[in-house]
Structure formats: structure tokens, C-alpha cells
Amino acid sequence: MVTRSRVARISLVEISVHSSVTRLVESYGYAVVFLFVAIESFGIPLPGETVLVTAAALAALGHLSIWWVIAIAATGGIVGDATGYWIGRLGGLALLKRYGRVIHFDEDKLEKVHRFFSRHGSKAVFFGRFIALLRTWAALLAGTAQMPYRIFTLYNVLGGITWATLFGTLGYVFGRSLPLLEHYIGQASLAVVLLIALVVALWLAWRWFDTNRELLAERVSWYWVRFRERHPGVARFIAARFVRGEYLGLHLTIGFLLSLAALWLFAAVTEDVVHHDPLTRFDLTLTRLFRAHATPLGDKIFSIVSALGSPGAMAVVGAGGALLLLARRKWLVLAAWVAGFGGAGLLTVVLKNLIQRPRPAGAAEFLFGTTYSFPSGHALGSLVGYGMLAYIIGSSWVESRRARLRLAIATAVLVIAIGISRLYLGVHYFSDVVAGYAVGVLWLSVCISGLQVAQRRRLSASPP
Q1: Three-state SS for 310?
Q2: Residue of 227, 240, 262, 222 lying closest to 436 (CA atoms)
Q3: Where are the domains of the chain?
């Protein structure tokens, strides 16, 4: 059941809308589901998704059939999108050409819409079904852009069925927590819209930068020349920080910036934990959420994933790598390797005993021994250990950039999966894992930067 404290955080407007929708669905049943979803899909912003979720919740209480709710919602969405498509195709283009100047929509922008739907129309129709604003306008825009009807129909049907099944199932499963579920769905839709807006803004910024690149280069060059004339010593120092060939150049600069960012993140999280700021309340909520949906199979799977970041696993990786580097007589790399693994273990012990944060309740089931919770030793150790391994493999045996990128992505996925496993098993809080990653990035950056500086210093000191 939804607690009173949670319901109190939901706005009065949302409660009013939910009550009205519930009364409509209770009174008119499947007809309301079809009409609201269909009308929303062809361009009028009604709460079709809310009606679907509400009807599914009533089905969970035995008032409706969930199969009919999903089928009718999918049909309404498909029919509504098809209607919106033909409205846009038959009348949208003429209206835009006649009245487009009123909303500053000229032929150039219409051509851009055509190009967008020719390249990304299928994705826009399918994924637009899951986003509030696009759910209302995607079909109209697709029709206006003259998107081929057979392609539109295919992705319209797939999107409608997938959307109705997903949100119908959510409403059916979480029927007793319906207001909270609708609140979170609305927040998620808003977050997706904001993300899309950010991506579009970045794309427009890149287009502007690409168009004005030569002008910007001239301006920057002019300012740099003036700065170099006034402050020659400082200019030489700054330039040397970004030169690849200098052993105190680009690598050290990148390492320093990464270390600074990681140190700031760790300090911010630690401050929140020590002073019991809102982050700690989020920790408790997320831990309860994970354990509330845990299953025996999930516990087994995530226990295996977690074991890949355990001190024992890291000791095996560290010892194996050290023996291989010793046999190949790579002394500088061996020193960085030992420093990485040894420093990670030392930092884990020192920081845990400094902060002394207790483990989450019920963590003993998946622990061997008792240690403090903050920061996560698995997150810290796996990031440093597997990060060092990926760096040495990538710099020594992998030549192509694509292969190095794949290696980096695989390493990141493994390390993130280990952190998620600690959250799922309930042995760490979210802030523990984030702090572990922050310290891991800091120490990994120090070790790799130190290795690169030493290697380049040796090269610069050796005779040509």
C-alpha cells in the first residue's frame, strides 16, 4: 500500500486528475480507454496513458479484463496514429505552406522535417509512442513529412502494441500504488523529453560550431597571440601542458583534471553521508526498492557478479598480472601495477575505518566477515584492477582504436555491473558505490598518469 507520507508528496492536481479519470473508467469502461488513447494519438493532448494505467489497475481489482484493456488501448493508439498521419498528409502540408509564416515555419524547416523522417522516421514513430509530447504529434508530423505509409504502419503497430502491453502490465502489477506509479511515469517522460531537448541543443550547437569553425579559430588564434606577447612565460607553460610529446604534457594534464573531478565527487558524497543529507535518504529508499524486488535467482546471479570484484578475485588478477610483467621485465609497468592494486586495498581499509558507516540492515546474509560500508571496496578495487588491466592490454597488445574502444566499454560494463550487484544484494548503499568509483578513478588516474610520465621521461632522457 502507498504510505500517507508518499501520497502527500503528490500534487493536488495529479490527485484530482487521477480521481476524474478513475470515475470515467469506472463508469464507461473500455470505451473511455479507446477514445482517450485514440484522441491523444491524433493530436489532442488528453491523458491517454493515464487512462490506460488506471484501467489496468481496475483490471487488477477484478473490474475489467487486463487482456481487453491492453488490446483496446493498442487498437486505439494504432487507429489514432493512423488518423493523425492522414490528417497531416492530406491537410498538414497545405496548412503549413499557407500559414507557416505565422509560426515562423518556412520551406527550409519543412525540408528539414522531411529529411529527418526519411532518416529517423521509423524510430520517431516507435519510440514517440512512449514520450508524452511525441505521442501526440509524431503521427501528424510523419504525415506532413510524407513518410511512406507502409513503413509508418509497421512501426505504428509495433509501437502501439508494445506501449499498451508495457504500461498495461505496469498498471496491473502496481495497481495498489497507482497514484505513485503515475507520478513516476510522468517524471520519467519529462526526463526523456529533457534529454531529447539536450541532445537537440547539443546537435544545434555542434552545427553552429562546424559552420563558424574558421571564424572561431581566427579569433582564438588572435587572442592567443596577444596573450603570448604579453605573458610569454605563462603561455609556454600552458602550451607544454597540451603537447603529446612532452613527458609532463597532455597525459599529466588529463590525469590531473580527472583526479580533481573524482576528488570533488568523493568529497561531496562524503559530506552528504557524514551530515546525513538527503542523499542518505535516497540510499535507504533505493536499498529497500532493490531488496523488495529481489528473487532467489537474482541473488545467485548477482552474487556471482559481485564475486568478480571481491578482494579474492582482485588478488588473483593482481598476482597473475604481476607474474606476467615480471617475466617480461616490464619494470615501470610492474611498479604501476603493484601501486594500483596495493593502493586500492590500502585506500579501502583506511577510508572505511575513517568514516565507519554501518552496513545496510540485512547485509550479513551476503557478507563474509564484518567491515564498514563506506566506500564500497568492490567498486573501488574492481575499477582500479580491471581499469589497470584494460589499460595495459590496450596500450601493449591492441592496436586499432575500435578494438580499444570495445575493450574500454566491456571493462566499464563489468565494473558497473559489480557496483549494481552490491546494491541489489543490499550490502552497500548507493553513495558507497559512487564514492568507491570516485576514489577508484582518482587512484587509477594517478597510477596511469605516473606510469606515462615515467615512460616519457625515460624516452626523453635516453640518447636518440
Answers
A1: coil
A2: 262
A3: 4-203, 245-461
Whether the upstream peptide bond of residue 311 has omega within 30° of 0, thus cis, is no
| pLDDT tens digits along 413-459 | 898 898 888 888 888 888 888 888 888 888 888 888 778 777 776 66
Rounded-to-integer distance, Cα 420 and Cα 287, Å: 11
| Exposure class string for 162-192: b at 16+ Cβ within 10 A, else e | ebbeebbebbbebbebbbbbbbebeeebeeb
- CB 298, CB 424: distance < 8 Å: yes
pLDDT value, residue 8: 44
Please compute the mean of the pLDDT values over residues 246-275 and round it to a whole number.
Answer: 68
CB 74 within 8 A of CB 160: yes
Instruction: Report pTM.
Output: 0.52
Q: pLDDT by residue (tens digit) across 94-105?
A: 665 555 555 455
Distance CA 255, CA 389 (A): 17
Residue whose C-alpha is closest to residue 397's, from 410, 411, 407, 386? 407
Could you give the C-alpha distances from 171 to 31, 164, 175, 266, in angstroms and in order? Answer: 18, 10, 5, 39
Angle, to 10 degrees, between the axis of helix 30-41 and the axis of helix 66-87?
Answer: 30
CA distance 136 to 87: 13
**Tens of pLDDT, residues 168-196:** 887 777 655 555 555 555 555 555 555 65
Cell of 457: 621521461
